[in-house]
Amino acid sequence: MIGSSTPAAELAKLSAYPHLAPAITVAERQARIEKARKLTRDMGADALLIGAGASLRYFAGVPWGASERLVGMIIPVAGEPLLICPFFERGSLEADLQITADMRLWQEHESPHALIAQAMKDWGAAVLAVDPAMSFEMVSRLGRETGLDIKEASSVINGCRMYKSPAEIALMQQAKDMTILVHKATARMLYEGITTGEVNNFIEAAHRKLGASGNSFVITQFGHGTAYPHGLPGEQRLKDGDLVLVDTGCYVQGYTSDITRTYIFGQPKPEYQRIWDIEKEAQAAAFARVEIGLPCEAVDYAARAVLEKHGLGPDYNLPGTPHRTGHGIGLSIHEPAYLVRGDKTPLDIGMCFSNEPMIVVPETFGVRLEDHMYVTENGAKWFTEPQEAIDRV
């Protein structure tokens, strides 16, 4: 099926994805806030400050990115959440906000840090746990201007966001299903001479036809370019006999997909087939190793054991796997926990990971098969079924 169609024909086949996952409910967001309160109290803080970004969306439904202006939400261990926002953004914030919260506004010449300090004083609070994704510049200014005792809140943010609810998993499933459809269409429409840029444009258009807002990201590499995990700059043209590596995803209500396929355009060289088969075996071993209570690093060890059995590696040596076996995923493409040596976070229900122990033959070619899985009481479950063969997507 690879190269059997055209871009126009494949786009014409796609239409809005029909199986839409429900939105996150207000009740679920409130439960997240209550869990954050407990974790904040457990770490010895009086309140939690969340900056604009993925965590603000997680707790409040506000899909804003961070900028130089402080926009955030303070969750006290007791009391209503409080939003800090520029005055002129009030209407936009109220339109996006999906929880009940108080609001304090600041004008352009005023300090938002003073509003935070006053809120903490009103609550009789002195210790503020701060979202680790906030910029160092913003947090250091907050500390200088308020004198608050500031603690880093990774244990709170990760303690909430690492464990996905059934509603989150359903949204992620939709995103991954949509991206799999795009992968299949992309493989079918390839032709000799097409550029990586043209493939990227097709993937953008295909995600949009399915109802996504476009790509969350895309990497397309041909031949020699596949030897570099995140690709080479510039345009490449597809030739007969090239390996094709496509890594892409989309967002559904903020939750993302991130799936890679590597396949042959034409007939594979024996070495391509050998490395592809080892990659598939390593990916399967990582999946099979998932068990509640095991440390995340155990999954990485399982994948690398396969490579060593076949004479690759060891560790990060090449030919072999130059990076971790996988990463957490949710509202961010890469988020804790990580399937890598040294991450001893216990695997538990609802944790979601990529599984991608890429094999690189230096400066020659690479193979990455990336699917995502989530932890259940019975081990891992795939969001998407792994690729079956080097000549089928």
From TrEMBL:
Entry's Gene Ontology molecular function annotations: metal ion binding; metallopeptidase activity
Residue ranges constituting the Creatinase N-terminal domain according to the UniProt record: 32-162
Domain Peptidase M24, first and last residues per copy: 171-377
GO biological process: proteolysis
Presence of the UniProt keyword Protease in the record: yes
Domain of life: Bacteria
Pfam families recorded: Creatinase_N, Peptidase_M24
Keywords, alphabetical: Hydrolase, Metal-binding, Metalloprotease, Protease
SUPFAM superfamilies linked to this entry: Creatinase/aminopeptidase (SSF55920), Creatinase/prolidase N-terminal domain (SSF53092)
InterPro entries cross-referenced by the UniProt entry: Creatin/AminoP/Spt16_N, Creatinase/aminopeptidase-like, Creatinase_N, Pept_M24, Peptidase_M24B, Peptidase_M24B_aminopep-P_CS
Stated family: Belongs to the peptidase M24B family.
Record's protein name: X-Pro dipeptidase
Species this chain originates from: Asticcacaulis benevestitus DSM 16100 = ATCC BAA-896
